[in-house]
Design a protein that fits this description.
Blueprint: E1 2-6, E2 9-11, E3 17-24, E4 33-38, E5 45-50, E6 57-59, E7 67-72, E8 77-82, E9 91-97, E10 114-118
Parallel strand pairs: 2-10
Antiparallel strand pairs: 1-3, 3-8, 4-5, 4-9, 5-6, 7-8, 9-10
């Protein structure tokens, strides 16, 4: 499993970012995918998941209505559109191959992460 995230950065509160995750080394289109984040000094937090076709999505309460997960199976790429970002969204964001509809999968299924910092 190889997952490479990009698109992180620093943004002011209320701003937006779009994360991308390029997948390789496995058949992307047959796996649910998920986003996980980890803030400094805290444990990993499940953020969102999407089914194999992109039609069914799940979100943590903390991001519901602000984040949108999507995928492009033709490009083996997972996305996370993040709007109305707040300082509490500051974390390392990881894409991962999901092992369930929700929840944090084993660390071996994660990418290397991309930093998102929300600060004025």
């Amino acid at each position: 499993v190889q997952l490479v995230e990009s698109g992180g950065g620093m943004v002011q509160p209320g701003g937006s970012l779009r994360l991308s995750c390029a997948a390789s080394g496995f058949i992307f289109s047959i796996h649910w995918m998920t986003w996980v984040r980890q803030a400094p000094g805290k444990g990993p937090e499940w953020v969102s998941s999407v089914d194999t076709g992109g039609g069914e999505t799940f979100y943590a309460d903390s991001v519901e209505g602000r984040f949108t997960i999507s995928r492009d199976n033709a490009k083996n790429t997972l996305y996370l559109q993040m709007n109305s970002l707040q300082p509490e969204d500051t974390a390392l964001y990881y894409c991962a191959r999901a092992t369930g509809q929700t929840g944090v999968p084993p660390r071996a299924f994660w990418g290397q992460g991309t930093q998102v910092t929300v600060s004025s």
